[in-house]
Write a structure and sequence with these properties.
8-stranded mixed β-sheet, 10 helices, 31% helix
C-alpha cells in the first residue's frame, strides 16, 4: 500500500504580542507522520495539543515554519501557481468541526455543491450532485437541493459538508472533529459515513478527535499528540486497549465509562505546559507519576511490538 502523504520534521510557530514583547508559540515541534492509501488515521489529544494546527498546515491554511510535506510522492512547494493550487484543492479536502459555520447560510445546498464543480470545471453537474447526495444518504434528493443550511439538522448539515468534500473525488480528507458538535445518537451515523466513503471512494482520512472510542471504531491507526509532539502511535485497537505512554493511559482513564464504579487510579496532577517555553525533555513529565530524572532530556521514539512510543520507560 503506497503512501499518499508523508510529513517530516514539521514545525509551526506563531508570533504573539504580550505587552511590548513578541513571543513565539511552538504549536508543532518536529512532527513526523504518514498516511497510506485507503487508510483512516485518527489524531487524539487534549485541546491545545496541536491537532487542528497540524490539519490546517496540511490543508495549506497555515504555512509551515519548517519541515517537509510529501504528497503523492512529490514534495509540496512553498508557493503554488494557480494550476497547482487547483490540483491540490481537488485532491485534498477538509471537513471542519462546525458544519453550520462551514456552509454559506445565504446559499442553497444545490449552490453549495455546484460551486466546486464550477471551480474545477467538472461537467454533468446535476447528475454529480444527485449521485453525491445519494452517497451521503440525503434522500429524497429533491427535498434537500433548495434548502438552506439553517433548515437542516446538525447531522444533515455535516453530511452536506462531506458531500461537498467528496464531490471532486479527492484522495485525502482532513476531518477536524466532524462529530464533536453533534448529538451522540447522530455521531455513529457520521462515523459510519466515513467508513463508507473510504470503502466506496478509496479515500484516506486524517481524522482529529477527542473521543478515544470513536477513534478506535473508525481508525486503522491512532496517533497521540501532546504539547505539539507525537508521544505514541500504533494500531488503533492496541493503542486504546493497551496504551503505553502515561499520557495515553491518562486519556483512557479520563474517558467516561458507566461500568466504572470507582474513580480513576491515574491521578492527573496538572495542566499542559506552556508552548512558549516548552520543557526540553518529555513535555508530560511534570504531570507523570512515573517521571524520572532522564525525562528532562530529549526523549526519542522506542518501538515496542510494532508501536512507537516516546517514553524512557520503554528503553
Amino acid at each position: 500500500m503506497s503512501f499518499v502523504l508523508k510529513v517530516e520534521n514539521l514545525r509551526k510557530e506563531f508570533a504573539i504580542r504580550k505587552g511590548f514583547k513578541i513571543l513565539t508559540v511552538k504549536a508543532l515541534r518536529n512532527v513526523d507522520l504518514d498516511l497510506r492509501e485507503n487508510e483512516i488515521v485518527s489524531i487524539v489529544g487534549e485541546s491545545g495539543c496541536g491537532k487542528t494546527t497540524l490539519l490546517r498546515v496540511l490543508a495549506r491554511i497555515y504555512e509551515p515554519t519548517s519541515g517537509k510535506i510529501t504528497l503523492f510522492g512529490k514534495e509540496l512547494p512553498k508557493k503554488m501557481n494557480r494550476k497547482e493550487e487547483l490540483e491540490f484543492r481537488r485532491n485534498v479536502q477538509m471537513v471542519f468541526q462546525d458544519p453550520f459555520a462551514a456552509l454559506n447560510p445565504t446559499k442553497t445546498i444545490e449552490h453549495v455543491l455546484e460551486r466546486p464543480l464550477k471551480i474545477h470545471k467538472i461537467s454533468n453537474k446535476q447528475q454529480v450532485i444527485e449521485d453525491v447526495l445519494r452517497e451521503v444518504e440525503l434522500t429524497p434528493i429533491a427535498d434537500y437541493l433548495q434548502k438552506y443550511p439553517h433548515e437542516l439538522s446538525g447531522g444533515q448539515r455535516q453530511r452536506v459538508v462531506f458531500a461537498r468534500a467528496i464531490i471532486t473525488k479527492p484522495r485525502i480528507i482532513l476531518a477536524d472533529e466532524p462529530t464533536s458538535m453533534l448529538d451522540v445518537s447522530i455521531k455513529s451515523g457520521i462515523l459510519n459515513l466515513m467508513l463508507k466513503l473510504r470503502n466506496d471512494y478509496k479515500i484516506a482520512f486524517l481524522h482529529v478527535t477527542h473521543d478515544l472510542a470513536a477513534a478506535k471504531y473508525v481508525s486503522d491507526r491512532i496517533i497521540v499528540m501532546y504539547a505539539g509532539i507525537i508521544v505514541e502511535e500504533g494500531n488503533a485497537k492496541e493503542v486504546v486497549n493497551n496504551p503505553l505512554h502515561p499520557y495515553t493511559k491518562l486519556l483512557k482513564e479520563a474517558a467516561p465509562d458507566p461500568e466504572k464504579l470507582s474513580t480513576t487510579s491515574f491521578v492527573d496532577t496538572g495542566e499542559p505546559p506552556s508552548l512558549i517555553n516548552p520543557p526540553s525533555g518529555c513535555p508530560f513529565a511534570p504531570r507523570c507519576k512515573f517521571a524520572k530524572p532522564e525525562c528532562n532530556k530529549e526523549v526519542d521514539f522506542v518501538v515496542v511490538n510494532g508501536r512507537k512510543v516516546r517514553c524512557v520507560l520503554y528503553r
